[in-house]
Amino acid sequence: MKTIIYNFTILTLSLLFSQIGSINAKSTIWNGSLSSSFSNSGNWSNGIPDSLDFITFNSNAPNNLILTQNQKITNLTINGDTLDLGGFTFEITGTAYFNGGLVTNGLVKPTGSLCHFGGATLDARIEATCGYFHMNSGVYKKPVFLTSTGAATSSSTYGNHFEDSLTITNNGAVYFNMGSSGKDIYDGPVILFNNSSKEIRLTATDTSYFNDNIIVNASGGVEFGASGGVSILASGKTISVGTFSSSYLTLTKFIQLGSTAQTLTLSGTGVVSLESCIFNGNLTINAPGILTKSSTYYGNTTFNRTGSATNFHSYGSNVYAGNVTWDNAGSGGRVRLSSTAPDTYLADATFSSSGGQDMQVAYVGDNAFSGNITITSNKVVFNTSTGKVTFTGTNNQTLNGSYNYPFKKLAINKTSGTVTANTTLSVDDSLIFIQGNLITTSANLLTMKHSSTATGASNSSFVSGPVKKIGNSTFVFNVGSGSTYRPLTITAPSNTSDAFTAEYFGTGQTLGTTKDTTITFVSDCGYWKLDRNVGSSNITPKFAFDSLHCDYLTVKPVHIALWNGTKWTDKGEAVTESTNKTTSLAMTSYGNFAFAYNLKPGDAPQFPLSVETSSTCSGMDVEFNQNEFWISFDVDSALFKFALFSPKRIQCMLLFQDFKYSTIMK
Question: Tell me: the pLDDT tens digits for 196-210?
């Protein structure tokens, strides 16, 4: 009870003294009718003010006030004229309104409940510690220090021009806002200290210009462009962090002019959030959390996420015009890129997980990559959701690293150049060929997962190298060599875990010349390799074959031959299915397959192709009539030359192409 009475008494006395002070205070207006002296009562409308009084400066006084000593008052309103501080300190302990006029030559020190700047020119240093601020236009020619103790949210409309440095410290529990309805100009350094749970907000709307460096120090949030405002950082200047240990550093519509490198390093639980930003120089961010949305990075960009908890899902719709490196270096929490919209990578991209946490790339949408990709961890994945990776560069591109690339959807759409896999890759859903080849090897193998599909392949887009397929569905291996697309189709295996690998070789086989007696000629145009890797399913292979193929002959039925390790074995006459030739029965053994024929002496080829004159000709048995020419030959190799005779004159001719490109008469 004594404590309650004591506290009540103290509160009552405080209120009483406050009321007494207010009662004793007077208001007085500077008229300057006699001189520039503060201490001349004739210069004031209501006598010389003391520290409790309220004073006002209007326009058109015959003499401007010039201080001759430090001065303290309670409330100040300056609407016009000039206040010359004479090199001294002018302290305002109540409310301060700088609506117009000029304050010069000294230190202005508001320490009360409200500090309002509304159009005055301050050619004096300002050290203001107030409950809250109204920054509603003004010109500030000397360093400005604003410290908010948080009685109410500090706000600013527009029109502030800081010709020297500005330091804002937010110690209250409320926001500190700048540029809420128009532009501000900052010619000197801007230094921010936020010790509040509420943000310091600059450039809320319109466009503000930062013509010197920005330094951010905070245990609370700092935000640029909260309501769509644009922040322009001048060429050669930087935004940097002194200390930033919690909450968000949010840059929205923050545009860097020039190519000066920028580095932002946060600690604790600090997060850098970038939206609709443009950085023209190299950018490095080291922070517990990093988010980016709809931003463009023209320099080389390095994002190192260092946090120990919390997942960070970046929206996407970013353009990385320079090389980019993303590293989830944190000990906990994942990083997800393009969580809502796809990203565009115009140069090389490197993705890492040095902290051993998930790094999810290309989460949704069609993510375009024009450069090389490197991954350094098996925690880096491209198959978490529905996203697609499309290779679009005009130069050769590579997949680098020692880990598998797991793609959900993969597309090749290159106007020139190829994509080379220097490590393994896999596709869960779909592989889409539009233009350009994907180059693989047996060591750097493409694996199509169960239920995946491959579409769109042609002579201008296919896999040059081996492809592995897992699953129990019919599948087309979109393989080829050079500029020739030669797909191989298999019927459905029995089990979802069954696996087959296929590859096409666009050169003559060098495995051997020994063959079954039922075939006399094995193609030296090209051949396929089909292996059964997992399972015991016997499938039927179907090999691409059409009239443009170099093996196309009508003189005899096509056979399919399989190299068994010592000779080419005849798997029988091929069955025609559209543009494919297939074996009549399912295969029980696998390896290298080629087309073959059982050609014999006397088989007659026809040559409807263009011919050219040859200087020599070799003798051959020829019979002819007016409408057709027949040439018989012995078969011993894949290449032949023929002499052609006309009924009216004998002329040695040589085909533009060898026999393997010819067709047979009728």
Answer: 999 999 999 999 999
461: β partners: 458
Residue 281 phi/psi, 5-degree rounding, is -110, 180
Distances (CA, A) of 327 to 265, 334, 462: 14, 11, 32
Give how far Cα 564 sits from Cα of 489, 590, 591, 595, Å: 21, 8, 7, 15
57 CB-side CA count, 13 A: 25
The 10s digit of each residue's pLDDT in 605-631 is 444 443 333 333 344 344 434 344 444
499-505 and 527-534 beta bridge pairing: antiparallel
Burial of 32 (0-12, 13-18, 19+ CB in 10 A): buried
- In the chain, domain spans: 1-130, 133-229+238-251, 503-597, 603-666
SS3 of residue 222 by DSSP: strand
3-state secondary structure (DSSP) of residue 609:
coil
List, as one string, the DSSP characters of 393-406.
Answer: -SS-EEEESSS-EE
Q: What is the pTM of this model?
A: 0.86
In eight-state DSSP terms, residue 640 is -
Q: How far apart are CA 529 and CA 522, in angstroms?
A: 15
pLDDT in tens, 69-123: 999 999 999 999 999 999 999 999 999 999 999 999 999 999 999 999 999 999 9
Q: Are 551 and 574 in contact (CB under 8 A)?
A: no
Q: How far is CA 107 from CA 56, 90, 161, 536, in A?
A: 18, 6, 18, 91
The two beta strands, 559-563 and 568-573, are antiparallel
147: β partners: 129, 169
